[in-house]
């Protein structure tokens, strides 16, 4: 990926509502050039969409937890994500290496709601759970450092 595209992606990751005019000013490109590059990044799947960042306390979901799950029967099919898809309190499902199979990020209204959700997770997917409750979140939704990769024209092994 070209350095200018990395800059555009970084800017959009910081503010998905940034206008083409502001992107052009930040990158030194024309508005039409930025527009073409953003559309190309979307078409390639680099930019997959734009989302609102929600204040979950304000909408009554102040409790965040990470729930690690592993199958009770290791020989059972690995279909936990499908079995849990109907539970809207699960914000994210990550397949992980280690003792657990998946780590779920969940948001609920209260400890009682978390307890109920854990029972639903166990019953729906036939898994055991290990839960970590979030006390506070100093930062979240940070844009990753978009450095070049080896073998790319502007990667670490590129000629000066």
From TrEMBL:
SUPFAM superfamilies associated with the record: Dimeric alpha+beta barrel, Winged helix' DNA-binding domain
Q: Does the keyword ATP-binding apply?
A: no
Q: Where is each HTH asnC-type domain found?
A: 1-62
Q: Which InterPro entries match?
A: ArsR-like_HTH (IPR011991), AsnC-type_HTH_dom (IPR000485), Dimeric_a/b-barrel (IPR011008), Tscrpt_reg_AsnC-like (IPR019888), Tscrpt_reg_AsnC/Lrp_C (IPR019887), Tscrpt_reg_HTH_AsnC-type_CS (IPR019885), WH-like_DNA-bd_sf (IPR036388), WH_DNA-bd_sf (IPR036390)
A Pfam family of this chain: HTH_24
Alphabetized UniProt keyword annotations = DNA-binding, Transcription, Transcription regulation
Checking PROSITE patterns in the record gives: HTH_ASNC_1, HTH_ASNC_2
Specify the protein name: Lrp/AsnC family transcriptional regulator
Species source reads Nonomuraea indica
């Amino acid at each position: 990926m070209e350095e200018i595209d990395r800059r555009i992606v970084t800017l959009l990751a910081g503010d998905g509502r940034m206008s083409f005019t502001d992107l052009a000013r930040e990158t030194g490109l024309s508005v039409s050039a930025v527009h073409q590059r953003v559309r190309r990044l979307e078409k390639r799947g680099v930019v997959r969409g734009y989302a609102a960042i929600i204040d979950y306390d304000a909408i009554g979901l102040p409790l965040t937890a990470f729930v690690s799950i592993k199958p009770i029967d290791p020989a059972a099919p690995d279909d936990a994500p499908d079995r849990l898809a109907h539970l809207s309190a699960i914000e994210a499902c990550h397949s992980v290496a280690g003792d657990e199979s998946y780590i779920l990020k969940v948001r609920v209204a209260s400890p009682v709601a978390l307890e109920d959700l854990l029972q639903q997770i166990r019953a729906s997917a036939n898994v055991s759970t290990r839960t970590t409750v979030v006390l506070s979140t100093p930062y979240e939704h940070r844009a990753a450092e978009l450095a070049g990769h080896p073998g790319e024209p502007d990667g670490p092994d590129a000629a000066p």
